[in-house]
Recover the amino acids of this structure.
């Protein structure tokens, strides 16, 4: 697992580089994301760790997804991503762990993420400004999960797979007594 201080620095640098690459000021990003300028500044300085909900809003305002945000910027394309080299992020609010599984630098339109979602955790991703063609599958390996995608709510059990459009609002909720473990398969190609 990566050193969390190093990873916080990586998040800070990535956020700032994406913002500057689009010639956005802190005020521009704050306005687009509905996040205070002060909070964005603290994140970019590595003084604050964003929650999953906050980071999703910032990514949407920057025109990217969480998967692309966490992807490394390596120029070397490799078909293999060793477990020890996969990036892990810990949501400071809910405690969920997110592992970027897909090989870095790949030209594939698919990203795979493994998530360990604690008992009692709940994360709300508001409707994002993504292309309506972006989709994801949630494939539950262990536990149970209550998922709301758009206006529909589903109770998932181990082995179930749910298809969702990324532009819809989503609520990930584990009201059960055991953690849930699942994969998110994000497809950036047009459906």
């Amino acid at each position: 697992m990566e050193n969390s201080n190093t990873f916080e620095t990586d998040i800070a640098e990535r956020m700032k580089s994406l913002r500057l690459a689009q010639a956005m000021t802190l005020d521009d990003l704050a306005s687009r994301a509905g996040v205070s300028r002060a909070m964005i500044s603290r994140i970019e300085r590595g003084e604050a760790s964003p929650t999953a909900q906050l980071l999703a809003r910032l990514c949407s305002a920057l025109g990217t997804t969480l998967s692309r945000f966490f992807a490394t910027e390596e120029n070397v394309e490799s078909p293999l991503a060793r477990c020890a080299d996969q990036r892990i992020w810990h949501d400071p609010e809910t405690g969920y762990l997110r592992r970027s599984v897909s090989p870095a630098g790949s030209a594939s339109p698919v990203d795979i993420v493994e998530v360990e979602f604690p008992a009692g955790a709940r994360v709300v991703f508001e409707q994002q400004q993504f292309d309506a063609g972006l989709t994801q599958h949630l494939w539950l390996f262990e536990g149970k999960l209550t998922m709301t995608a758009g206006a529909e709510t589903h109770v998932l059990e181990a082995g179930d797979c749910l298809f969702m459009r990324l532009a819809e609002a989503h609520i990930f909720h584990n009201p059960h007594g055991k953690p849930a473990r699942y994969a998110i398969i994000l497809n950036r190609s047009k459906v």
